[in-house]
């Protein structure tokens, strides 16, 4: 949260969560909703109730756009909110990996978009708790897009940016924090050298990136900036 506040000084920061509350977060956030008890029904299903609490508060403040991400990750970019707005490409929803067309999975960990469209994509009335959160997220996205297929909805309303270009660092990946906690100042100043090995999904072996940001390999058939442009 310290990184988000330092690098996004003009942004309104909302934090929602459950379980053991992180220390010293109040000084970095404008609004916090925290449940002391872990909500087991949220885990593994996208945390839709907690996300909706954040969305609803943002709507009540009159905001037009919203960025959603995990509190245990950072983006090595100054003002990631503005970067996303500049890269929305006249669409309604900026997405990233993991997003898989064939199995209709829409990544739900890092998102940016029009706040009213956002609300529709996280519609609790249409959320299926029997499957991973990626699928009900995709179903809501299709419905919000007034589309017949996932592909049609993506073409109509999505702007896809690779994890590498988001500079999206995962602090909780296997072994990541043990190394990164010694480099806090570099993280805060967005000057982490060889950051690609700490990108989301890299330490788990889900993605591998070259030094120039080209995707070398991936575990699933995810959409990327390259193949998204092709099918688009």
Any key phrases for this structure?
16% strand, four-stranded mixed β-sheet, alpha/beta, 232 residues, globular, two-stranded parallel sheet
Measured by DSSP, the beta-strand proportion falls in 15-25%
Total strand segments: 10
The class by helix and strand makeup works out as alpha/beta
CATH architecture assignment:
Alpha-Beta Complex
Query: How much helical structure, as a percent, in the residues?
Result: 25-40%
Number of helices: 10
Q: Please outline the major beta sheet.
A: 4 strands, mixed
Shape type? globular
Q: Alpha-carbon distance between the termini?
A: 36 Å
Cα radius of gyration in angstroms: 17 Å
Secondary-structure map:
Layout: H1 2-7, E1 14-18, E2 31-35, H2 48-60, E3 65-68, E4 73-75, H3 80-86, E5 93-95, E6 111-114, H4 115-121, H5 134-144, H6 150-157, E7 158-160, H7 163-166, E8 168-170, H8 176-180, H9 184-188, E9 207-209, E10 215-218, H10 225-231
Helix pairs in contact: 2-4, 5-6
Task: Tell me what the structure shows.
The model has no long low-confidence stretch (mean pLDDT 95). The chain is built from ten helices and ten strands. The protein is of the alpha/beta class and 232 residues long. The protein has one domain (2-160, 222-231): Spore Coat Polysaccharide Biosynthesis Protein SpsA, Chain A. Helix content is 31%, strand content 16%. Helix 2 (48-60) packs antiparallel against helix 4 and helix 5 (134-144) packs across helix 6 (150-157). Strand 9 (207-209) and strand 10 (215-218) form a beta hairpin. The chain is globular. The strands form four sheets. Strands 3-6-5-7 form a four-stranded mixed sheet, sandwiched between helices. The chain has a two-stranded parallel sheet with strand order 1-2. A two-stranded antiparallel sheet has the order 4-8.
């Amino acid at each position: 949260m310290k990184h988000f506040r330092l690098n996004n000084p003009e942004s309104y920061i909302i934090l929602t969560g459950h379980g053991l509350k992180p220390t010293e977060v109040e000084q970095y956030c404008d609004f916090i909703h925290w449940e002391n008890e872990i909500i087991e029904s949220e885990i593994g299903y996208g945390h839709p109730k907690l996300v909706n609490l954040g969305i609803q508060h943002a709507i009540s403040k009159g905001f037009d756009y919203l960025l959603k991400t995990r509190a245990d990750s950072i983006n090595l970019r100054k003002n990631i909110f503005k970067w996303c707005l500049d890269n929305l490409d006249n669409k309604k929803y900026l997405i990233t990996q993991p997003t898989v067309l064939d199995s209709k999975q829409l990544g739900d960990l890092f998102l940016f978009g029009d706040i009213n469209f956002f609300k529709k994509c996280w519609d609790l009335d249409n959320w299926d708790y029997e499957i991973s959160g990626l699928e009900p997220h995709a179903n809501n996205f299709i419905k919000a897009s007034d589309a017949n297929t996932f592909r049609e909805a993506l073409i109509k309303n999505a702007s896809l940016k690779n994890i590498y270009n988001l500079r999206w660092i995962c602090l909780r990946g296997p072994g990541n924090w043990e190394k990164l906690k010694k480099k806090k100042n570099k993280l805060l100043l967005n000057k982490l050298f060889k950051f690609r090995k700490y990108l989301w999904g890299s330490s788990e072996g889900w993605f591998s990136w070259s030094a120039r940001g080209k995707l070398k390999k991936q575990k699933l058939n995810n959409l990327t900036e390259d193949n998204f442009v092709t099918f688009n």
